Amino acid sequence: MTAAGDLIGSRWRVLGPLAKGGLGHVWLGADERTGRTVALKKCGLPKSLTAEKRSLVRLWVPREARAFARIQHPNVIRTLDVLLDGDAPWIVMEYVPSRSLLDVILADGPLPPARVAAIGLDLLAALTASWDADVLHLDVKPSNVLIAEDGRAVLTDFGPAGSKAGVAALAEAEVILGSPKYVAPERLFELITDERSDLWSLGATLYHAVEGRTPFTRETTDDALHAADAGRPDPAVLAGPLEPVLFGLMRRDPAERMAAAEVRRRLRRIAPASRRTRVLRTATAVAAAGAVAFAGVAFAGQSPSPAPSSSPTPPPSAPAQVAAPAPTLPPGFVWWTHQRADFRVAMPKTWKPAWKAGTLRCTSPTGHPTMTVSPWTDPGNVLAALTRAESEKPPPGYRRLRIQPLDDSPGAIWEYTFQDPQAGRMRAMRQVVKVGPSWYALDWRAPATDWATDLPTLLEVVPTLTVK
Questions:
Q1: Tell me, what's the pLDDT at 274?
Q2: Which pLDDT tens digit goes with each residue over 193-228?
Q3: What is the pLDDT of residues 222-260, one digit of tens each?
Q4: 10-48: pLDDT as tens digits
Q5: What is the C-alpha to C-alpha distance for residues 258 and 242, in angstroms, rounded to an integer?
Q6: Burial 156-191 (b: 16+ CB within 10 A, else e)
Q7: What residues does the Protein kinase domain cover (predicted)?
Q8: CA 188 to CA 133: how far, in whole Å?
Q9: From 3.40.50.920, 3.40.50.1240, 3.40.1000.10, 1.10.150.320, which CATH number describes the 293-467 domain?
Q10: Which of 5, 36, 169, 244 gets the highest tally of CB atoms within 10 A of its CB?
Q11: What does the H/E/C string look like for 111-170?
């Protein structure tokens, strides 16, 4: 049983659950070497497989996963590592703050045809990049499509994917992986798989997005398979100009299925005219801990909150793990600075700031999480300074998770849990970093049970730290 705090492959620390799917669980994790936040997928195996086929798939997944690790594209989740740990394969992927397309549909209902067309173009670009790398995805569906905060659609969860040769070998053993309501009929009934199978799944996914339901609305898996065999998806009601594309993609005979080039041409005519090519934003996860009194950040009182700064932010000069190439104001955030501080940083506009001696502490409306940015005055041996702070006065229930140097830049990171008398079990992370000529301690504190939920806010804050 995987739980928060577990270490996978002697490197990847499990932080908390992210999602659960038909072929495995996904956790938020951290790279013990760099502090980077990642997504960790434990690839489950269908219970229907025989012991022999389970052994085949267990060995097949890591080998084939290395094929899609070669894919580098802004609409494809990057694979960072593939390994066997315990009883199942694990895939380590980049973490992108986002919502799945399925969650968007459930929250917002059917999406407008123009928006679905834009999503379709992103997914088609992702699939084309995969095919160019000789990889088939084989499980395109709304829960495997992420809608990132910059609006782009990102294809994730290449769990059943693999090279064409590898997929053929698995089919020969009569093993078909994927979600039945989105799997092309030729894969289910003729064990034939190629790029056109991914196109069928793309059509079913876009149908679900624009109609708010799957193409086959029967409730049971057997009925869904029967509908797929008949090759007759339910009529579209809301698709409008997308309807010819959807049914062109979901033609029963792969030879008659709409080709990728034609799909792209039609989607471009439907997508918003303002749609532009999006640039991949690297979500390196360096995290920071909450204000820790025994580590030198204590607040005897709060000074009046200054007004948010409207002046432009200068380009960053921090190491890559601290700042993105060009910090911009995230939606729902405001810039905070102070005349006595030599830095500026973006924080959620609903949070309450307090300044003391050049240190900024921001607190969420509920009291947790908190984020503190303060000057660091002991850059000589950061690792020793953190270790010394740990030994001086640890809080109740203290348990170290790690204290280690950063791999590729000066500084160190300290992560731990402790017991707060009012808030219960807390988790904290402090990272000491150099930004330009200056050193800072970034402190993040949140309830341990909410760590995975609150972390996306931290991922927005950290890249905005710049020197004034």
A1: 47
A2: 889 999 999 999 999 999 999 998 754 444 444 444
A3: 444 444 445 578 999 999 999 999 999 999 999 999 999
A4: 899 999 888 765 556 889 999 988 888 999 988 766 565
A5: 13
A6: bbbbbbbbeebbeebeeeebbbbbbbbbbbbbbeeb
A7: 12-270
A8: 24
A9: 3.40.1000.10
A10: 36
A11: CCHHHHHHHHHHHHHHHHHHHHCCEECCCCCHHHEEEECCCCEEECCCCCCEEHHHHHHH
Q: In the structure encoding, which two tokens stand for residue 97, read together?
A: 């703050």
Report the alpha-carbon distance of residue 192 to residue 185 in Å, rounded: 9
Amino acid at residue number 406: L
Sequence letter at residue 395? P
What pLDDT digit, counting tens, does each position of 99-140 carry? 999 999 999 999 999 999 999 999 999 999 888 888 888 889
Q: How far apart are CA 372 and CA 442, in angstroms?
A: 6
H-type helices in 212-302, by residue range? 221-230, 243-249, 260-270
Q: The domain at 7-270 falls in which architecture? A: Orthogonal Bundle (1.10)
What gap in Å lies between CA 368 and CA 427, rounded to an integer? 11
The span from the CA of 315 to the CA of 325, in Å, is 8
Rounded Cα distance between 59 and 332, Å, is 45
Long-range contacts formed by 397-403: CB under 8 A, 24+ apart? 397/425, 401/5, 401/13, 402/13, 402/32
Residues 271, 320: Cα–Cα separation, whole Å: 34
Identify the three-state secondary structure at position 103: helix
Nearest residue to 61 via CA among 189, 182, 167: 167
Q: Report the C-alpha gap between 66 and 61 in whole angstroms.
A: 9
* Distance, CA of 153 to CA of 267 (rounded, Å): 14
- Strand 359-363 to 399-405 pairing: unpaired
Task: Calculate the alpha carbon distances from 271 to 120, 199, 238, 242, 459 in Å.
Answer: 9, 18, 16, 10, 30
Task: Quick: pLDDT tens for 149-158.
Answer: 888 999 987 6
Rounded distance, CA 191 to CA 415, Å? 49
Q: What distance in Å separates the CA atoms of residue 340 and residue 239, rounded to the nearest whole number? A: 56
Per-domain residue ranges of the chain:
7-270, 293-467
Residue 287 identity: A
Chain position carrying tokens 């506009």: 349
Helix, strand, coil percent content, the chain, rounded in steps of 5: 30, 25, 40
Please report where in the chains the tokens 């495995």 appear, as a residue. Answer: 24
Element housing 61 (H / E): helix 51-68
Highest-confidence segment of 136-140, 305-309, 408-412, 457-461:
136-140
How many alpha carbons fall within 13 Å on the CB side of residue 221?
6
Helices (H), 160-309: 164-172, 185-189, 195-211, 221-230, 243-249, 260-270
